[in-house]
Amino acid sequence: MTLDNHKLIAVYVEYYPLFQQAYDDLGYPSAYFNDRLVEVIDHLLETPDTKDPMLRVYHRFVSTNPSQPEYVSPTLPI
């Protein structure tokens, strides 16, 4: 799949005020959404590429207390 970079940039610029407002609403009023987006993209680009498929097994612990979130452990043995 290919994307037209100019169209993608135009959409981002058009919707940026909404992204920034949502970021402010999430509790980051003195930070810029764009700065965080760049940090996340950089982090993803640093992710090593694996040649072999990876298998990850998760174990779930669900609490009966609705205010306690579900906990998923990727490290426990099967």
Strand fraction: 5-15%
Tell me the distance between the termini.
Answer: 37 Å
Estimated helix fraction: 40-55%
Give the spatial strand order of the biggest sheet. 1-2
Shape: flat
Radius of gyration: 19 Å
| Sequence stretches where pLDDT stays below 50 over 5 or more residues | none
Number of domains: 1
Number of strands: 2
What is the string of helix and strand elements? HHEE
How many separate helices? Answer: 2
Tell me, rounded to a whole number, the average pLDDT: 82
Secondary structural class? mainly alpha
Main β-sheet, in a few words? 2 strands, antiparallel
Task: Describe what this molecule looks like in 3D.
The chain is 45% helix and 8% strand. It has 78 residues and is mostly helical. It has one domain (5-73). The chain has a two-stranded antiparallel ribbon. The longest helix is centred in the first third of the chain and has 21 residues, at 5-25. It starts with a helix and ends in a 5-residue tail after the last strand.
